[in-house]
Write a structure and sequence with these properties.
Layout: E1 2-8, E2 13-19, E3 24-31, E4 39-45, E5 48-54, H1 59-70, E6 84-89, E7 100-102, H2 105-112, H3 122-135, E8 141-144, H4 164-170, H5 179-193, E9 199-204, E10 210-215, E11 218-222, H6 245-253, H7 257-266, H8 269-274, H9 280-287, H10 292-316, E12 321-325, H11 326-331, H12 333-340, H13 352-357, E13 362-363, E14 372-375, H14 380-397
Helix pairs in contact: 2-3, 5-14, 9-10, 10-12
């Protein structure tokens, strides 16, 4: 079975083609600047690369171009588009829906229902999925929602202190996101340590960041809430924020409610606090040159991570392993060092040399550390491909 896993942006389309017989990635590619005069397209198959720069009107055209490249004679890994069993999407959230679902009109309506809570995620996905469903009707579309892994979170970590009716009637609860990444970390740590009873704290740190407490392979707490705007602050999104400040800001700034929300969703986080950039590398670069706001932004980010880390150590009663993953978690030695600083009394001791030299998947804890510390590159696409295979296999058996 071949599964195409898609990652959509408002003007981009990235994909991986998996052979699910052996879970091998046969091809990877991306299309950028969709809808502009020229759209750069790159595909890589077995080390061979093809690049084009042609007009791509919409995501359906991007997928068609992708399928043409994947079936190109003497280059593509497959002979015919009918070999693609499904296109899987790392979808984020939908009203009243979670898990892994075939995409249909009802599912798209459920995603669209909460566009105002997921302004950076749902609108581009809904738009692209509608186009693909219309123009590529023979290929099933499957949404693997990021909330799925967190359905095991107990009620004590799921409910807000708001009227119970809001939770029951409007689904205002803590969902948690980055589910594919945290699920992968749960599975991979069990493989590494050959144990299924691990207490794991997974730290997915990147442009968007979250922590997850995992007990015996199941999510029991996650830093994000009803929307992906919450928890740790992100590259340009606010994270946790007091809602009672919003009417005050409206009155003091003269901005509308929508304008304030837009600032919180697009001009906050690292970008807003540093005043420099939403890219941590840029922020650290100027912080090291004496930029005080940039240094403050780094300190607040580290403080946020440590706040949730501490909470999850209490939730789990300690941890067997801490995992840094995501672009920042895997590659930024300074953030890892500062997050682990001063935790020796809790049995968490980072080996500074290992932390400095690490590349890819590796242990970075000191020999005396009671809790293991690892960097593990996540593989969200593989998780989505597995979920798509399972759903399509069940669907085919029942039809």
């Amino acid at each position: 079975m071949y599964v195409l896993v898609a990652n959509l942006g408002s003007t981009s389309f990235k994909y991986s083609l998996f052979d699910m017989n052996n879970e091998k990635v046969l091809a990877k590619g991306r299309v950028e600047r969709i809808g502009e005069t020229l759209s750069p397209c790159l595909v890589e198959v077995n080390g061979q690369k093809r690049e084009t720069n042609v007009p791509i009107a919409d995501h359906a055209v991007a997928v068609r171009q992708c399928l043409e490249q994947l079936t190109e004679q003497n280059f593509g890994p497959i002979k015919n588009t009918t070999e693609v069993a499904a296109i899987g999407f790392k979808a984020v959230h939908a009203a009243g829906v979670s898990g892994v679902q075939l995409v249909d009109a009802g599912l798209l309506d459920a995603m669209e229902e909460i566009n105002d809570m997921m302004p950076a995620h749902n609108p581009p996905y809904v738009k692209a999925m509608r186009i693909l469903a219309e123009k590529l009707p023979d290929i099933p579309l499957v949404a693997a929602f990021e909330t799925g892994f967190h359905q095991t979170i107990p009620n004590r970590n799921r409910y807000y202190g708001v009227p119970f009716e809001w939770a029951e009637k409007y689904n205002i609860i803590r969902y948690g996101f980055h589910g594919a990444s945290h699920r992968y970390i749960a599975l991979r740590t069990a493989e590494i340590l050959k144990r299924n009873d691990l207490k794991v704290i997974s730290m997915h740190l990147g442009g968007s960041s979250s922590l997850c407490a995992i007990n015996a392979g199941q999510s029991v707490a996650a830093s994000m809430g009803t929307s992906a705007q919450t928890g740790l602050f992100h590259n340009n999104r606010v994270g946790d924020f007091d809602p009672f400040v919003i009417p005050y800001l409206i009155r003091k700034t003269g901005k509308t409610h929508e304008e304030i929300l837009n600032i919180l969703a697009t001009k906050s986080g690292l970008l807003g606090l540093s005043g420099v950039s939403g890219d941590l590398r840029d922020v650290i670069d100027v912080a090291e040159k004496g930029h005080k706001q940039a240094r403050l932004a780094v300190e607040v980010l580290v403080g946020d991570i440590r706040k949730y880390l501490g909470a999850y150590l209490v939730e789990l009663g300690g941890a067997d392993i801490l995992v840094f993953t995501g672009g920042i978690g895997e590659h930024n030695k300074m953030i890892r060092k500062e997050v682990c600083a001063g935790l020796d009394g809790l049995g968490i001791v980072l080996d500074l040399q290992k932390n400095k030299d690490v590349q890819g998947e590796a242990a970075i804890h000191a020999t005396e550390s009671k809790t293991q510390i690892w960097t593990i590159p996540t593989n969200e696409e593989l998780i989505v491909a597995r979920q798509v295979k399972e759903l399509i296999t069940k669907y085919n058996k029942n039809t």
